[in-house]
């Protein structure tokens, strides 16, 4: 097959590209960074350099493709996340309709049907194609964002490192640290990007007649259980995951001068995870769990942790 992979060489797209190439497919990787071209070529794929918000570029790239893996990376440089995601989704839809690609797999998220700003899935409903929506749970790789926090305080928080107007800000709440408004003993499904890549590769080679939705996870546990696994691997078995209130989270985002609409969206995204609604929807779909356990990822995490 001639497969288009968007997402440059990110956490999912890199292992997905390697897997598809190993299966004998011709793979084109879309990236907005010209510096990634050599790495893409080294993987045995072809690079297409341009923006997913440019429908003319996407149309040219998608022409002749058998299948497309489409994703929209979160951009914290955008003051209105909803407008940005809709613009990117509409670019995809226009290009896919013009090129009549027969198989599309779109990466969404497990909070998508609960968050108005994040949910652009419905924009793909008008496609005359075989469509699967992927809804992965919380990425293992998000733990990398907490390395400095773990080193300094022995606390895990789903704090976000944001770039806005060129400013890198670590958000702070009343505790002096920014942590997410989910955590503690909240039960969460975590997922390895490798398991997502495996699931996407599998879906790209299927052709369901109706739109399908597939949830993807690797392991379920409480946030504090996850913190102990990560902490034990780096020599801090007492590691804990602090939970902020929605108000504290919003205050921290505002202190970092994040635009109000974006700040409220970020708070809402984590609030539904704290509520348990995302877990309920995940279980309702009865998904097959992936192979990579958090303890497996923790070994990779420890290497990065000790190098910093």
TrEMBL record:
NAD(P)-binding domain mapped to chain residues: 7-203
Annotated InterPro entries: Ergot_Alk_Oxidoreductase, NAD(P)-bd_dom, NAD(P)-bd_dom_sf
Protein name per the record: NAD(P)H-binding protein
Annotated signal sequence range: none
Gene3D superfamilies in the cross-refs: NAD(P)-binding Rossmann-like Domain, UDP-galactose 4-epimerase, domain 1
Domain of life, source organism: Bacteria
């Amino acid at each position: 097959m001639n497969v288009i992979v968007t997402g440059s060489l990110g956490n999912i797209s890199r292992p997905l590209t390697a897997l598809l190439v190993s299966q004998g497919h011709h793979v084109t990787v879309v990236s907005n960074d010209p510096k990634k071209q050599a790495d893409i070529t080294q993987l045995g794929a072809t690079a297409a350099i341009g923006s997913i918000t440019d429908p003319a570029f996407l149309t040219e790239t998608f022409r002749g493709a058998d299948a497309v893996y489409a994703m929209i990376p979160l951009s914290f440089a955008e003051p209105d996340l909803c407008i940005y995601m809709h613009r990117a989704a509409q670019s995809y839809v226009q290009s896919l309709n013009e090129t009549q690609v027969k198989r599309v797999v779109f990466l969404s998220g497990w909070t998508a049907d609960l968050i108005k700003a994040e949910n652009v899935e419905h924009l793909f409903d008008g496609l005359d194609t075989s469509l699967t929506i992927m809804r992965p749970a919380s990425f293992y790789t998000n733990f990398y964002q907490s390395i400095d926090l773990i080193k300094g305080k022995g606390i895990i928080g789903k704090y976000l490192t944001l770039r806005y107007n060129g400013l890198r800000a670590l958000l702070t709440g009343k505790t002096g640290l920014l942590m997410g408004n989910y955590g503690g003993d909240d039960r969460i499904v975590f997922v390895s990007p490798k398991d997502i890549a495996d699931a996407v590769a599998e879906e790209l080679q299927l052709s369901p007649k109706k739109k399908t939705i597939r949830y993807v996870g690797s392991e379920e546990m409480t946030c504090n259980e996850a913190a102990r696994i990560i902490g034990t691997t780096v020599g801090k078995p007492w590691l804990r995951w602090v939970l902020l209130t929605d108000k504290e989270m919003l205050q921290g985002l505002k202190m970092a001068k994040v635009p109000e609409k974006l700040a409220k969206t970020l708070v809402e995204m984590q609030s539904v995870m704290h509520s348990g609604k995302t877990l309920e929807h995940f279980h309702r779909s009865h998904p097959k769990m992936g192979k990579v356990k958090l303890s497996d990822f923790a070994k990779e995490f420890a290497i990065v942790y000790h190098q910093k």
